[in-house]
Amino acid sequence: MNVLEDVRLEREFTVSPQVLFDYVSTPEGLLQWWGPEGLSVPEHDLDFSRKGPWFSVMVNPEGQRFKVSGHVTHVDPPKSVGFTWAWHDDADTRGFESHVTMTVTATDRGAHLVIDHTGLPDAEAAENHTKGWTSSLRKLERLAG
């Protein structure tokens, strides 16, 4: 029996909760930090400000494509967004589905972000997602300090 794995990452920012929420929910905000460092996002429907489907295609410098998609499950501005997450294989078939929640709370200095990525299939997937989210969050930290 597989035990599902969860990942939790937390960061502090010196921007208001509304500004941070815009970074994690709007296409304009997400595209500034979405995807690990060194990857571009040439194709996407990244909009977590409304329920419904989303996808992004990340491309590395060698031209490899990494497609991920899901469905926005909840939007509670300026507090949280939730969405399903599944990688696609080379034949564009969706794989194992997990769930991500991004929660924004006010702090004395700005805003606090928690990313909970739950229901990952195994420890290796959890480790890979931790690395990917950590790299992406470094980009967001440069933007929103």
Largest sheet: 7 strands, antiparallel
Number of domains: 1
**Order of neighbouring strands in the sheet with most strands:** 1-7-6-5-4-3-2
Low-pLDDT regions: none
Family: Belongs to the AHA1 family.
Which key terms come to mind for this protein?
alpha+beta; START-like_dom_sf; globular; ASHA1/2-like_C; seven-stranded antiparallel beta sheet; 145 residues; Alpha-D-Glucose-1,6-Bisphosphate, Chain A, domain 4
Provide structural commentary.
- By secondary structure, the protein is of the alpha+beta class.
- It has a single domain (5-144), classed as Alpha-D-Glucose-1,6-Bisphosphate, Chain A, domain 4, CATH 3.30.530.20.
- The protein contains 3 helices and 7 strands.
- It has helices at 17-25, 27-30, 123-144; strands at 5-13, 40-45, 52-59, 65-76, 80-87, 98-106, 111-120.
- The chain has a 7-stranded antiparallel beta sheet with strand order 1-7-6-5-4-3-2.
- Strand 6 and strand 7 form a beta hairpin.
- The termini are far apart.
- The model has no long low-confidence stretch (mean pLDDT 96).
- Residues 15-144 form the Activator of Hsp90 ATPase homologue 1/2-like C-terminal domain.
- It holds the Pfam family AHSA1.
- InterPro entries: ASHA1/2-like_C, START-like_dom_sf.
- Belongs to the AHA1 family.
